[in-house]
Write a structure and sequence with these properties.
The structure holds three protein chains of three kinds. By secondary structure, chain A is mainly α. Chain A has twelve helices and no strands. In chain A, α2 packs across α4, α7 packs antiparallel against α9 and α9 runs antiparallel to α11. By secondary structure, chain B is an all-alpha fold. Chain B is built from twelve helices and no strands. In chain C, α4 crosses α5, α4 runs parallel beside α7 and α7 runs parallel beside α8. In chain C, the strands form two sheets. Chain C has an eight-stranded mixed β-sheet, sandwiched between helices. In chain C, α8 links the parallel β7 and β8. Chains in contact: A-B, A-C, B-C. Chains A and B meet through α5, α6, α9, α10 and α11 of A and α1, α6, α7, α8 and α10 of B.
Chain lengths: ~300, ~300, ~350
């Protein structure tokens, strides 16, 4: 069950070039229970999001003022909210928003963050100092607050949220990438590549970045989880995706006023959020375990 | 020692300047005109123009930046559009509630999170470790505001143990009573995060060569863990605390809203909703500066603790 | 208890087997290894990375972590078998009757404690002493390993020492309780050549002064030639040849040893001659289930049934107990290497 020998036993070939994921590595990943469960959960959520129109029993936005706060029934499997809208349908459609945000944030922050980080790490000198300083400043703002301010400035919309959370997360990815590249740069194979005449750009793209991917991938999954939580928080505050579009965050907010008599609304939405975040965290942890041991030493406890 | 203190200070100042700069440009990232934004869609052209002049928005941007920098560093953060009072005063008057929430919340988080993380690492692989980690996973996966709502539901409504809303009537014990539930919710959510990271930090240390050497010399496991390894994990654990502190400030806003508590978070929220631009800006500045200051303090602390960082 | 048999080995490893779980069953990392060292003797254990040389002695010291475990065999230190001991009992031996120093001195010392504190920690692990007595002894230990100005250095941190000095400090820690056996696992690989010599000379001196037996794990045959009395060559978790250093060097009776010796570049070979290597890689543990593990890389290898099917056992091939595990070791006899 456990991956093959831990660090202290197998003599290390410290200078191997590892291009992820080698077939053996994939196999190890499949054997990691947490990773597998997380991946399955995530796959399920993706399917729900994709097939929402067919899976949802009713329209998520159709109101029915005759049936407000209806208890669970065949027509409304989880009952209705204060506007008579089907709770289950809203939850199902909410999956789309959350996953969209998560995906967009991951793609944007991974790309831009990696570029910035590897530029900083690889080029050194003034560029490195400037990028580091910008990162430090951006990281001084608590992520959620920064996202809040950006959404406040740009107005509430899905786009704003994506931009806001991405901006908050790009520096985090950049910092990790920067640190990792710094550990790769001095390795002999980089110098060897230079010696045989590869341009810096080629070295960066073909050798440095693939080797730096493992910790960055882990940060990416964490950023996806954070993105979902951030979107939920912003929507809860009324600054996120606007009604009537259902998102788990604003469903919780909707249910807040009636939480004592009708707790199901807020509670169910919270459970949905938790499930997605758990899935992503399980994957993140699993990836961290299986892409170890090189990784743990590179990013340590700060692989947020 | 003095030298590193000075360099920390310089770094702090430079970063604060950066923070101010970013805030400035952030606020000006609003598409359209800030004055229009503040006054709303129905403002008259005259009103907009006079506000623009008042805010100095008709000057070139670098001029505005310079002005902003100067004003900020002298404590003038503009005035709230809604109340007309100086923004800084608004912020400062609301600070005590936020500080008490943050401090108590972090204290709870540290007291719960660090020992749990350490224990988990000590008994790695056992059911105890797994149990703690599963709980921690749940703790970081449920949104903090949801936990707050559930806590209110459970402890305030059904059990009647705690007051539901507000911060109290000013009297110390009353205020404390109102603080307990929100601080605990915040604390538990942050504790989950801290526990996970503390565990990683300890495990990382336990994988080091010098631990293997200590074992080879016949030193007992207990001594290795609690003396030799723990000391090394101190700096990473402090780093974890410093990072989670910044993160918990974001959560504090949500808690304040859920529990209807006054404080910096609520103030900023109201300012955002009422388009009180100066106030939002001021709030951001204060919070970010607080974070930077605390981080600098922590960095300085690392320098004291880790002998490798002390110059000979 | 009096012992009439001459020279019983201080360290006697018999048929040691250590396994790790693999995808399809347990994989032997140390596969039926037997070694012995006598008091005052230095045994060199030689082999490539992955040959199991470190693991053998980690097993001997009970340092194998889950999921690996020592499956069978005996490790006798001064007559006491360590294998069946509980963790507590084992701990009493570690650092006291048998000790180990590792490869990387830079990471072997705890960075946040002074060197003195760490030495005292080791002293307290096995003896009750007052703080001042421990401190005094720590200073003496530093003197013994030739650290200058020990009074002051005691309160310095590891990062204030050079690599060579750190290795000496580690040696002091390992010999603090006068162990019968010291295992030195590639103690000088991370050090400069000049420093290497110092560290090994130190170990030799300690050996002479206290009659300590030393196992030198290394892949550097030059060191073996200079310092070791006997040598064991390991390949793929097994000992394939063993004997007095002078004999093995002069007359290697296993093709692996032969290839190893031949691959050392010599001063008298022409500059543009190719470097001799042993083609291929050592097999991963558990991949060779029958026959000789070296067969695919062996220059004597001709796909013979014996080599492929029957695992070669160690047989005596010379005096002073020269052993070799090769079916066809006679074919090596004719072509003895010049020293």
């Amino acid at each position: 069950m456990t991956p093959f020998p831990a660090k202290s036993s197998t003599p290390e070939a410290t200078e191997t070039i590892t291009l992820p994921p080698a077939p053996g590595r994939l196999r190890v990943m499949f054997q990691h229970r947490g990773l597998l469960i997380g991946a399955i959960m995530l796959a399920a959520l993706v399917l729900i999001a994709l097939f929402a129109p067919w899976l949802a029993p009713n329209s998520p936005t159709a109101t029915n003022l005759m049936e407000t706060f209806a208890p669970p029934s065949w027509t409304y499997p989880l009952g209705t909210d204060q506007f008579g809208r089907c709770l289950l349908s809203r939850l199902i459609w909410g999956t789309q928003v959350s996953l969209q945000v998560a995906l967009s944030v991951v793609v944007i922050s991974l790309t831009l963050g990696s570029i910035l980080g590897s530029l900083a790490g690889f080029s050194g000198g003034l560029l490195e100092k400037v990028i580091s300083w910008i990162n430090d400043v951006l990281l001084a703002f608590p992520g959620f607050l920064l996202a809040l301010a950006i959404v406040a400035a740009r107005g509430s919309s899905l786009e704003s949220i994506v931009i806001a959370v991405s901006v908050a997360y790009i520096p985090r990815v950049a910092v990790v990438m920067h640190a990792v590249v710094l550990t790769i740069k001095p390795r002999p194979f980089v110098e060897a590549s230079r010696a045989i005449g590869l341009t810096n750009l080629r070295i960066l793209l073909v050798h440095v970045i693939p080797n730096a991917m493992p910790p960055v991938i882990v940060v990416a999954t964490v950023s996806a989880a954070t993105a979902i939580l951030a979107e939920a928080g912003l929507s809860f505050l009324g600054l996120g995706v606007q009604p009537p579009t259902p998102t788990w965050g604003n469903i919780i907010s909707d249910g807040q006023t009636s939480i004592v008599e009708h707790p199901l609304i807020s509670i169910s939405a919270g459970l949905c959020i938790a499930m997605s975040v758990i899935a992503l965290n399980l994957m993140g942890d699993g990836l961290r375990d299986t892409l170890d041991p090189q990784m743990r030493r590179q990013t340590g406890a700060k692989a947020l | 020692m003095i030298r590193s203190f000075l360099s920390s200070m310089i770094r702090l100042v430079v970063t604060v300047v950066g923070v101010v700069t970013v805030t400035f440009f952030l606020m000006r990232a609003i598409p359209g005109d800030p004055a229009l934004y503040m006054l709303g869609d129905y403002a008259t052209a005259d009103a907009v123009a006079s506000l623009q002049a008042k805010l100095g928005l008709d000057r070139p941007i670098l001029h505005q930046y310079g002005l902003f920098l100067k004003q900020t560093l002298t404590g003038d953060l503009g005035s709230s559009v809604v109340t007309g009072q100086p923004a800084l005063d608004e912020i400062v008057s609301n600070l005590p509630w936020s500080i008490s929430l943050a401090v108590l919340g972090m204290a709870i988080a540290i007291v719960i999170g660090v020992p749990l993380g350490i224990t988990s690492a000590r008994y790695q692989g056992t059911w105890l470790d797994r149990a703690v980690m599963v709980t921690a996973l749940l703790g970081i996966s449920f949104p903090v505001f949801w936990i707050g709502l559930v806590a209110i539901l459970g402890f305030s409504h059904w059990a009647g143990l705690f007051p539901t809303l507000g911060a109290g009537n000013g009297e110390f014990w009353n205020e404390l009573y109102h603080l307990i539930l929100p601080a605990t919710v915040l604390g538990i959510s942050v504790a989950a995060y801290i526990a996970r990271l503390t565990r990683s930090a300890m495990l990382e240390v336990l994988g080091q060569d010098y631990v293997r050497v200590a074992r080879a010399m016949g030193i007992s496991e207990g001594r290795i863990f609690y003396k030799l390894a723990l000391r090394n994990a101190l700096v990473p654990i402090l780093a974890v605390i410093s990072v989670t502190f910044a993160w918990s400030l974001g959560n504090a806003i949500l808690i304040e809203v859920v529990f209807s508590r006054p404080g910096l978070g609520s103030t900023i929220m109201k300012a955002v909703l009422s388009r009180d631009y100066q106030l939002v800006q001021a709030g951001l500045l204060v919070l970010a500066t607080a974070v930077v200051t605390i981080n600098t303090l922590f960095n300085f602390l690392y320098g004291i603790i880790d002998p490798r960082l002390q110059k000979r | 208890m009096s012992n009439v048999t001459p020279v019983r080995p201080v360290l006697d490893i018999r048929s040691l087997r250590t396994v790790f779980p693999g995808p399809s069953g347990p994989l032997p990392i140390v596969n039926d290894v037997s070694l012995s060292v006598r008091a005052g003797e230095m045994l060199a254990v030689v082999g490539e990375s992955g040959s199991g040389k470190s693991m053998t002695f980690m097993s001997a010291l009970g340092l194998i972590e889950k999921p690996g475990k020592v499956e069978s065999g005996q490790v006798l230190v001064d007559g006491v078998d360590l294998v069946p001991l509980s963790r507590q009992e084992m701990r009493a031996h570690r650092g006291r009757s048998i000790s180990m120093i590792f490869q990387d001195p830079l990471s072997g010392l705890n960075p946040v404690f002074t060197v003195g504190a760490q030495l005292i920690e080791v002293l307290h692990a096995h003896r009750k002493m007052s703080r001042s007595a421990a401190r005094k002894e720590a200073i003496e230990l530093l003197e013994r390993v030739q650290i200058p100005d020990p009074h002051r250095r005691l309160d310095d941190y590891p990062h204030q020492f050079s690599g060579g000095m750190r290795q000496r400090v580690l040696t002091a820690m390992a010999t603090a309780h006068q162990p019968k056996v010291l295992i030195a696992d590639e103690p000088t690989t991370a050090l400069d050549v000049t420093v290497q010599a110092q560290v090994l000379d130190l170990i030799d001196n300690l050996r002479r002064d206290t009659g300590m037996a030393v196992v030198l794990i290394t892949h550097d045959l030059g060191l073996v030639a200079r310092h070791a009395d006997r040598m064991s060559v390991m390949y793929s978790g097994r000992v394939v040849e063993e004997g007095k250093v002078s004999q093995v060097f002069a007359n290697p009776r296993h093709p692996y040893t032969r290839s190893l010796l031949q691959s050392i570049p010599r001063l008298d070979t022409p500059v543009d001659a190719d470097l001799m290597t042993i083609r291929g890689q050592p097999p991963l543990p558990g991949t060779i289930r029958e026959g000789c593990a070296f067969e695919s890389r062996c220059f004597l290898g001709r796909g013979r049934v014996d080599c492929l099917r029957i695992r070669p056992e160690l047989q005596t091939v010379g005096k002073d107990v020269h052993l070799s595990a090769c079916h066809f070791h006679e074919s090596l006899e004719e072509t003895a290497l010049s020293a």
